[in-house]
Automatic annotation (TrEMBL):
The chain crosses the membrane at residues 12-30, 140-161. Its EC number is 2.7.13.3. PANTHER family: SENSOR HISTIDINE KINASE TRCS, SENSOR HISTIDINE KINASE YKOH. This is histidine kinase. It catalyses: ATP + protein L-histidine = ADP + protein N-phospho-L-histidine.
Length: 428
C-alpha cells in the first residue's frame, strides 16, 4: 500500500515529463522562427544601409562599378548585381544550406538569405545577402539540457513541498484517523473531533460523527433486544421443559402419550439450544465480548476433552492427540472454550462407532480430524442451519458459531478432506 500523496505525485511527475519532452521541439521551432525573423530584419537593414552608403559617396559611374566589383570580392556573404527595372517586384526571404569551402574540413551550415532591390544613383541593383543561422543540433542540445535541468528542479521542488505541506495539510485527517482507531463500540464513547479550516475534512468529521451516533444507537437497540430475548425466551422454555419433565414422570401415561411427550421434550430441548446459539451469534456479531485476555489454549483443550471423554468411550472412538504445552493466544476465554467444544462435538457427532479422531495443537494451529468417507460441501459448510448429514440432534449452528468466533479473533477457519478424514483447522 502507498500513501495518497505518492499516488498523486507520480502521475503529476509523468505528466510534467511528457509536457517538457513535447516542449523541446516546440521550443526549437519557436526559437528558430524568431531567429529567422530577426535575421530577415538584420539583412534588410544591411541592404538599406549599403545603398545609403553608396549613394552618399557620390561616385562616378566608373568608380561605382569598380567599387561594386570590389565589394563583391571582399564580401563573400553579399552580392550586388545590376538589373533591369521591374526585375523583382518584392523582397525574397529564404533559407539555404551550404558548405564552408574555405575551411580544411567542409561543414554544411544553414544561411538565411535575402534578395532585395536597392537603388544606387537611381539605378536598380539586386542586393543578395546571406547570414549564418545557429547550428540546429546545438540548439536542440541546449534546449534539451535546459529542459532536463528545469524538470529535475520541478521534481525536487515538488517532492520537497509535498513533504512539507503534507505535515500541516493532512494533520487534521491523521488526528481523525487516530481517534477512530481508539473507538470501541462496546464502550459507546462518542469521539469529539477537532475543528479544521479545511472544508473537506470538516465535512468528513461531521459525517463520521453522525455515522457513529447512528451506529451506537443501533448497537444499543440490538444489545437491548438480545438481552430481552435471552431473558424472555429462556424463561418460558425452561418452564415448558420443567412441566414436560414432570409429565414424563407421571405413572398413568400410556405408551403413546409418553412417546408424544418425549418427542415434545426433544424438540423443546433443541429449540432451547437453538435459541442460546442464536443469541450467542448475535452477541458475537455485536462485539459484546472482550478479546484482550491471555488464554492457555492447551489447558482449555484438555478440560474439554476430559468432559467429553464419556462420549468418546460411548461410541468407542479412538482418540489420538499431539498437543504442545504452554500454548498462549489472545482472545476471549468463553468463546474459545465454545469453539473447542463445538469442534470436538462436531467430530464426535459425525464419527461412526469405532472411528477415530485426531486432535493436534501447535503454537500456530489447532486441528481436529475425524474419520469419514466423503468430502463435505465447503460452500455450505459454515452457513447457518445447513444440514450436511442425517443427524437431527444438532442445532445446525455449531460450525456457523465456530466461523464467527474465528472472525472475532481474526483466526482463519479452514476445512479439508484428506486421507479419509474431515480436518477442521484454526490458524491463529
Amino acid at each position: 500500500m502507498k500513501p495518497l500523496l505518492s499516488k498523486t505525485t507520480k502521475p503529476f511527475i509523468i505528466y510534467v515529463l511528457i509536457i517538457l519532452v513535447i516542449s523541446i521541439p516546440v521550443y526549437y521551432f519557436a526559437v528558430d522562427t524568431i531567429w529567422k525573423s530577426e535575421l530577415d530584419e538584420h539583412n534588410t537593414t544591411i541592404a538599406e544601409k549599403t545603398a545609403y552608403q553608396f549613394n552618399n559617396l557620390k561616385l562616378s559611374d566608373k568608380e561605382l562599378e569598380k567599387s561594386i566589383r570590389l565589394w563583391n570580392q571582399i564580401q563573400p556573404a553579399t552580392d550586388i548585381e545590376r538589373i533591369p527595372f521591374n526585375y523583382l517586384k518584392k523582397d525574397q526571404f529564404f533559407t539555404v544550406e551550404k558548405q564552408k569551402t574555405f575551411m580544411s574540413k567542409p561543414e554544411t551550415e544553414r544561411y538565411r538569405c535575402l534578395k532585395k532591390v536597392i537603388y544606387i544613383h537611381h539605378v536598380p541593383y539586386l542586393f543578395t545577402v546571406e547570414t549564418n543561422i545557429e547550428e540546429s543540433q546545438e540548439t536542440v542540445a541546449a534546449i534539451a539540457a535546459i529542459t532536463i535541468f528545469f524538470f529535475i528542479l520541478i521534481v525536487a521542488g515538488l517532492l520537497f513541498l509535498n513533504k512539507k505541506l503534507s505535515t500541516s495539510i493532512w494533520k487534521p485527517f491523521r488526528n481523525t484517523l487516530d481517534k477512530l482507531k481508539t473507538f470501541n463500540l462496546n464502550s459507546q464513547t462518542r469521539i469529539e473531533f477537532g475543528t479544521t479550516d479545511i472544508t473537506e475534512f470538516e465535512e468528513l468529521n461531521r459525517s463520521l460523527t453522525q455515522l457513529m451516533e447512528h451506529t451506537i444507537s443501533v448497537f444499543r437497540t440490538q444489545k437491548e433486544f438480545t438481552e430481552n430475548a435471552s431473558h424472555e425466551l429462556q424463561t418460558p422454555l425452561a418452564i415448558l421443559k420443567n412441566k414436560l419433565d414432570i409429565l414424563l414422570q407421571t405413572e398413568h401415561l400410556t405408551d403413546q402419550q409418553y412417546q408424544i411427550a418425549e418427542e415434545m421434550n426433544r424438540a423443546l430441548t433443541r429449540s432451547s439450544r437453538i435459541n442460546k446459539n442464536l443469541l450467542l451469534l448475535a452477541k458475537i456479531e455485536n462485539n459484546q465480548f472482550d478479546n484482550s485476555e491471555t488464554i492457555l489454549f492447551d489447558e482449555l483443550l484438555f478440560q474439554s476433552m476430559e468432559v467429553l471423554q464419556e462420549h468418546f468411550e460411548q461410541k468407542k472412538i479412538l482418540v489420538s492427540t499431539h498437543i504442545l504445552p504452554d500454548i498462549k493466544v489472545r482472545g476471549n476465554t468463553g468463546l474459545t472454550e465454545v469453539l473447542i467444544n463445538n469442534l470436538l462435538l462436531n467430530a464426535i457427532r459425525h464419527t461412526s462407532s469405532g472411528g477415530s479422531i485426531a486432535v493436534n495443537l501447535t503454537d500456530s494451529r489447532f486441528e481436529v480430524a475425524n474419520s469419514g468417507t466423503e468430502k463435505l460441501n465447503g460452500d455450505m459448510l459454515f452457513k447457518r442451519f445447513s444440514k450436511l448429514s442425517t443427524d437431527t440432534n444438532g442445532s445446525g449452528l455449531g460450525l456457523a458459531i465456530i466461523n464467527e468466533i474465528g472472525k472475532f479473533h481474526y483466526w482463519k477457519i479452514e476445512y479439508r478432506f484428506e486421507n479419509n478424514s474431515h480436518v477442521f483447522s484454526v490458524a491463529f
